[in-house]
Amino acid sequence: MKLALEHRVNPDFALSIEARFPGERHFLGLSGPSGAGKSTLLRVLAGLEKQASYHCSWFEDMPDRRVGLVFQDGLLFPHLSARENLALAMRYRKQPHYEWQDVVEGCQCAHLLDKQVSALSGGESQRVALARALLNGPDVLLLDEPLSALDLMTRHGLLKYLQRLSCSGLNILMVSHDLHDLALYCDAVGYVKAGKMQICDEPDAVLNELAHQGEYRQQQFGLLQGKRLDVTELDDYGCVAFECQGQTLYCRTGALSGEQVKMLVDARDVSLDRQPSNDSSIVNAFECEIVTVGEVRSGQVLLELARNSTRLYSLISQLSFERMRLRVGETVTARFKLR
Fold it and tell me: Which residues belong to any copy of the ABC transporter domain (predicted)?
């Protein structure tokens, strides 16, 4: 997707976006610090900022496009029940993109239909709002922190549903402060700062670039991905195995897309040793090389690890780093728990 956008929000702040997301991707993520302009960007694309000028390749040859926009607080009609909110969206839909039952089940809101909006929690309102937007038959779906009030398992369930819709051709642009979710489920990610697009690329490339820039030091993740392995006995353990750079890894909460598995590993969860065998209770062992060693901050050191094109990070204490005498170029085993 190609995007060019100019909008003066106020005398002190303007959006000036030039972005080219890689390839023909349908599920794009957008992140960045508060006040960077992410929500305003969505409002521009939704046609709510009349003074803005923009061009989006998703809108080419689509003069009568219908854009769905879901805000963080849902903005449901308060005088209607959840069911009536959804029925109203269907009444005015452009075309029957999605069936009622599929959307209600996918958004996990079947049990909420007869509730009044005033009786819904924040997370319940978000699920109904997402279902309402889909039932209206959008050509493009814009999401502004749409799942922020949901628990982990419900959030992953809805993200998997959105991923499935994107695979069927629905263009989705989702704003979230949670880079973890975006990296797992989006095809590509953009990072906005001070009104400009700092980077837009494959999720792993964005995570690596932000690490090099010193962003999110305390929340640095490595993205491991590869082909799922057919290990049937793992079904009893609720996990899957996949091959990454010739090594077998295991995960529970990773994202599955066809035969591909994605898993994010928090730098704080990665321990290092020099033993290639895995005689530890920690299931995952990934042999890699130390690429860079960051500055000591608050008694901690961030190490960048690599195996070919795959990047992983380990945030360890300065004491451990000095005791082990770790150095750039050394081969180590990174260990992290099954999650």
Answer: 1-219
